[in-house]
Amino acid sequence: MSRIGTVFLTSLLALAVAPAPAQQGGIESLRETGKAFASVARAVSPSVVFIQSENRSPATGSPQYRFPFNEDFFRRFFGEEFPGLPYREPPKGERRTLEQGSGFIFTASQRAASDKTYILTNSHVVANAEDIRVTLQDGRNFPATVTGRDPKSDVAVIEIASRGLPALALGDSTKLDVGEWVIAIGNPFGLSHTLTVGVVSAKGRTSLGISDYEDFIQTDAAINPGNSGGPLVNLDGEVVGINTAIFSGSGGYMGVGFAIPINLARQIADQLLEKGKVTRGYLGIVIQQLTPELAESFELAQTPGILIAQVLENSPAEKAGLRNGDVIVAYRGVPVKNVGSFRNRVSLTPPGSRAELTIIRNAKRRTVSATIGELAEDKAVVQAPTESTEELGLSVQTITAELAEQFDTEPGAGVVVTAVATDSIAARAGIEPGIIIVQVNQKPVKTAAAFKRAVEASRDERRVLLLIRRDDMQQYVVLRW
Length: 481
What we know:
Elements: H1 3-17, H2 20-44, E1 48-58, E2 64-65, H3 71-78, E3 87-88, E4 94-106, E5 117-121, H4 123-126, E6 131-135, E7 141-150, E8 155-160, E9 181-186, E10 194-205, E11 216-219, E12 231-233, E13 239-246, E14 257-261, H5 262-275, E15 281-282, E16 285-289, H6 292-297, E17 306-311, H7 316-320, E18 327-331, E19 334-335, H8 339-347, E20 354-361, E21 364-371, E22 373-374, E23 382-383, E24 387-389, E25 394-398, H9 401-406, E26 415-420, H10 425-428, E27 436-440, E28 443-444, H11 448-456, E29 463-470, E30 473-480
Parallel strand pairs: 16-23
Antiparallel strand pairs: 1-4, 1-6, 2-3, 4-5, 5-8, 6-7, 7-8, 9-10, 9-12, 10-11, 11-14, 12-13, 13-14, 15-22, 16-17, 17-18, 18-19, 18-20, 20-21, 24-25, 25-26, 26-27, 27-28, 27-29, 29-30
């Protein structure tokens, strides 16, 4: 018998001979845990809503054909345009699509109207919606309108003309611990008020390419399509996050879900209620993570922080005296750990307010005070530089909204090549600036940092398989070094 089999059999025997009181105690403990989850479900579910939004867009499509029987069989072997099949005209006029998601009632700020009920959800759930319907657990149905939405953080507030509906208490997401129980409630696949349970897997997830401003809670509570906008709650029934996205190769649950921390969502919601839009702070620096290699190059002890690669002209940073090569280790008295969290904190700083930055310059700590500016639509709070790989001889950049428009793609749909070294491996393979790299080793890459990590993970094999897109054509390219 194998060692694993022996251990398993020993465990079974131990259970078989365990004293009855010990077994009963374990079962009672499980019962109490189940009752705790059930209690949270009863308290929270009346405030969770099912959201349906109808979008209208011009109908487009290519000629289609009616299959006489077993359509999947014919498509699999002969393709869509199998000769001799009855022809069907492409659709004309308007095309209607129905989006489904979740949301939850919350107590809005004092600036909100008293005769309305406000609901927090994801921006993408109600984007471009013409008709929105909200359904409560008891079956009541209300038309809803968008109070305000912020695509950059993927937070939206919608409202219904009703009052006295139960609202959920908002917790403090900064107090969450990794390993803590959390509960997701929503409407996956249209299955109303579904509860799933898991733990906080990680905090502060950034650079995922899901939204512009990221600081996600990662959880293994099952989140599926339709959960978007629903609450992630703790065992006290307090909302600690808004369920937003899943990591999946199939479109379904694979053990990794992401939620917007409620502290971030609450600040966005307050601005949406007050002004209908979000005003963000602006500093005007190009930054990058302080790696051990960079710390050594700048003769610094390895310390958490971010490195200023460029100070933009006439920016608040330049006026405050910040310089290239400065390392920011604290912002407003709070340590700076990574680019994503720093970017979020700057963006949520009210324009016109003062912010103290602790920096290291020439191996000495000093404090710099900056007056935060207001972010214009054509600016970035901070800009991440391109990432380069010596092995391949190319540099890439994360696809921003501006680059997406320029290259006819979408943010997060790969990385764009910005430079190729002469006579490099990439150059010999025909890769040129402007080409989009969609995958590395058959896995999608959404950011420049993710691309660099994927290449570094292939150092032992000394080869990478790239899926690249040039104009409207995609092809695989193998690079060896």
